[in-house]
UniProtKB/TrEMBL annotation:
Pfam families for the chain: Pyr_redox_3 (PF13738)
PANTHER family linked to this entry: FLAVIN-BINDING MONOOXYGENASE-LIKE PROTEIN (AFU_ORTHOLOGUE AFUA_4G09220), FLAVIN-CONTAINING MONOOXYGENASE
Protein name: Ferredoxin--NADP reductase
InterPro entries: Auxin_biosynth/cation_transpt, FAD/NAD-bd_sf
Protein source organism: Achromobacter deleyi
Broad enzyme group: oxidoreductase
Length: 438
């Protein structure tokens, strides 16, 4: 039975999901977009106060811009750096209102699971001829929707990693949930009252941690009883603070230099080699235990240890995932942080994102699994290629149309946290370019 009359379902109306819709529309295909939140890009609103490391020129998809142009939309300055809120108000929300997108966008509609009609994951006979079935929970209850293909762009921000070093919650972590935040809370805004004049520990060594530390230090300047502690699992800051002035993502480089200066000035207390296995209440406050190491008591903890994909909604489909990164097996060797501390990682598309379940593509941040190395621009290249593949244009699907920035992190040695090292060769892409894009 032909499935050509069925839509292509997109899970998630973030920047990559709506870019996928734009590319499908440009090829004459019919997308159907489901967003669990009340607005497009709902997850971005949770870090709307954070300024991105990449400028507008890296964050606007070409086909999406082409849809916006007839509406009178004016692109923001290419070299300006948006906050998450800017990304929503100046780009994503206007895109969601463009008629061809708006007519196909279903808000407050959570995709609970995806399967093949009449087939569980075990059944093989005529599997490829069965349409996808999406169970969608929306304002009018649950319903089933059929689709000829599925693009999962649901992201990972809703599923942060635990603080526990074993990959599961530390002992006591769930019991202390009311004093633990994950990701990048709005320390200088709506969460100010929670952290002002408190002892706050940030756990993590990525740029989400940097943003939290930066805001806490600014809060401490106004609220002097605020104490800022930082715990990392490593034993050295080498490579952690980034490429400094050599970093082609300039805002990221600047932030690393600022954190280095705050450490030198004693405004952040650093603890290294911290592998948390237990958190416990004490009369003095929360105490994090890491084997024999016990950290000073604190009032609040911010866990910025990255994110993981929620794969439950795809459990009845046949996936081919790398056991470490939880990304597609063909993509994993390109992004695995155990292998690629840096180095050249080529752009990728439909071929690397494919699964044994023909017609299923996981794209955007979720395609990287647990690897913390995603750039939004990479996601736009992914969906350009996927849309071409779904249209049968395999030449375009296999073509590379993306050149990613270099960063000074590669092949450098830092003598001091605020030192500027000479940029080495290579490091062309996503393996080095982690940012706040979700």
């Amino acid at each position: 039975m032909s499935m050509d009359h069925l839509p292509i379902a997109i899970v998630g109306a973030g920047p990559v999901g709506l870019a996928a819709a734009a590319h499908l529309l440009e090829r004459g295909l019919a997308p159907l977009v489901f967003e669990a939140g009340a607005t497009a890009g709902a997850s971005i609103g949770r870090w709307g106060h954070v300024r991105m490391f990449s400028p507008w020129s890296f964050n606007i998809d070409a086909k999406a811009a082409a849809l916006l142009a007839p509406t009178g939309w004016v692109a923001p300055p290419a070299d300006a750096y948006p906050t998450g809120r800017d990304l929503l108000t100046q780009y994503l929300w206007p895109l969601a209102e463009v008629a061809p997108i708006r007519e196909r966008l279903h808000l407050n509609s959570r995709v609970v699971s995806v399967s093949r009609a009449g087939h569980d994951v075990m059944r093989t006979a005529q599997r490829g001829q069965a349409p996808f079935l999406l169970r969608v929970a929306g304002p009018e209850g649950e319903r089933d929707v059929l689709a000829r293909a599925v693009i999962d762009a649901s992201g990972t921000y809703a599923t942060p990693n635990w603080m526990g070093t074993h990959g599961i919650p530390a002992l006591g972590e769930m019991a202390s949930a009311d004093r633990i935040a994950y990701g990048v809370p709005d320390v200088l805004g709506e969460a100010r009252h929670r952290y002002a004049n408190r002892r706050v520990l940030v756990l993590g060594s990525g740029h989400s941690a940097f943003n939290a530390l930066h805001d806490l230090a600014e809060l401490a300047a106004a609220e002097p009883r605020t104490q800022v502690l930082w715990a990392i699992r490593g034993v050295s800051l080498e490579r952690i603070l980034g490429g400094g002035k050599n970093d082609q993502l300039q805002e990221r480089g600047k932030l690393g230099l600022v954190i280095g200066r705050l450490l030198d000035e004693g405004k952040i207390a650093l603890h290294t080699g911290v592998h948390v296995d237990r958190i416990a209440e004490s009369p003095e406050g929360l105490r994090l235990h890491a084997a024999s190491q016990v950290l000073p008591p604190v009032d609040e903890v911010i866990v910025a240890t990255g994110f993981r994909p929620e794969l439950g909604l795809l459990s009845e489909l046949r996936l081919e995932l790398d056991p470490a990164t939880q990304s597609p097996v063909r993509l994993a060797p390109l992004i695995d942080p155990n292998v690629h501390s840096c180095g050249t990682v080529r752009p990728h598309g439909a071929a690397e994102l494919s699964h044994p379940e023909d017609g299923l593509y996981v794209v955007g941040m979720k395609s990287y699994g647990r690897a913390p190395t995603f750039l939004m621009w990479t996601g736009y290249e992914q969906v350009r290629s996927v849309a071409a593949a779904l249209a049968g244009d395999w030449e375009a699907a296999g073509r590379v149309e993306l050149v990613l920035p270099e960063t000074g992190v590669c092949h450098t040695q830092f003598r001091r946290p605020d030192a500027v090292a000479e940029r080495g060769p290579g490091c062309g892409t996503t393996a080095c370019a982690s940012g706040r894009q979700g």
